[in-house]
Design goal:
Layout lengths: L1 H14 L17 H11 L3 H7 L8 E5 L1 E3 L6 E3 H13 L2 E3 L2 H5 L10 E8 L8 E3 L5 E3 L4 H11 L8 E4 L8 H14 L3 E4 L12 H18 L7 E3 L9 H5 E4 L2 E4 L2 E3 L22 E2 L4 H11 L13 E4 L14 E4 L1
Parallel strand pairs: 1-5, 1-14, 2-3, 4-5, 5-8, 8-9, 10-13, 15-16
Antiparallel strand pairs: 6-7, 11-12
Helix pairs in contact: 4-6
The structure holds zinc ion.
Length: 341
Amino acid sequence: MRKYIIIITLILILISGCGKDEIPKLDNNGVTNNDQAEKNEINNPDPEKIKEIGANELGRIMIIEYHVIGEEDARWARSYTSFRQDLEKLYNSGYVAVSLKDMIQGNIDIPAGKTPVVITFDDGTQGQFRYIENEQGEMVVDPKSGVGVLENFYKDYPDFGLEATFFVNYYSPFGQGADLSKRKITHIIESGMDIGNHSVNHLKMNTLSKEEAAKELALIVKMIKDIVPDYEVETLALPFGIGTKETEWSVRGEYEGTAFENIGVLLVGSTPAPSPYNKNFPPYALERVQVFEDNLDKWIKYFEENPDQKYVSDGHLEVISFPESKLDIFNTEISKEIITY
Ligand SMILES: [Zn+2]
């Protein structure tokens, strides 16, 4: 009997790799086995953890919408202090800003357990981006303007991200004249944020011919290309949320040698958008959540009370995770690994 116990103990020692004080072995790349194990944990999603955090990448995503940023709140205006508070509420509720383009293309690369939010501004009003002169006589970003609030928030909370899309019209976007307008557009693009198309004249697009609509959209693309040649304007927020007579006219076209092609077209109202992995994701009719009064709070609360409706990341860009009960709304044409629970 004792003999058997010794043999079994010996076998156990051999299997477990010779005791606790073993020095980690180096593989060919000089990476220890322990490092490799850690790496695998990061690269390979753990289904148990995915279930635990309630990853739901078929949940809905808020594309939030601002117009005027100013001193006071109103139906179409948000004070800069309220705007800052909106960002704080989102951050404290687990949201991370993602770019509209990434959201539309399903490139939502945020940490596990976090929820994406897309920030948009329409009409290129001055309060969204203002320069002011400092004591040294230099023009600096007004901290009370939309871009100033966003950039200062990003300094305080870098993990929130600095992502927003500004939908502009023609004739000196953001006011303050043509020179500063160009500087602002360059600043937005260089900082990694986006410019979107809001048409030249902000007309009701359903009243326009195909050629008139193409002119309204292509000239914005040309205006931005003349300022930042390698930047692609490829998202459109329809003025008043009103579409062209045929959807195709909003999506692609050409006017006097300038072509445009939009990967996403946004409406004005009024609910969170489906996930880009949902088979019913409508890239050319994306609804938005307008921020006025307590409308944003209501939606944050709605998602807290209905967590199955909320997009929650699994932390892995190449993997899409969601509860098995949602399988019927998954777009099976998407070629990413899926994990259900
Ligand atoms: Zn507008």
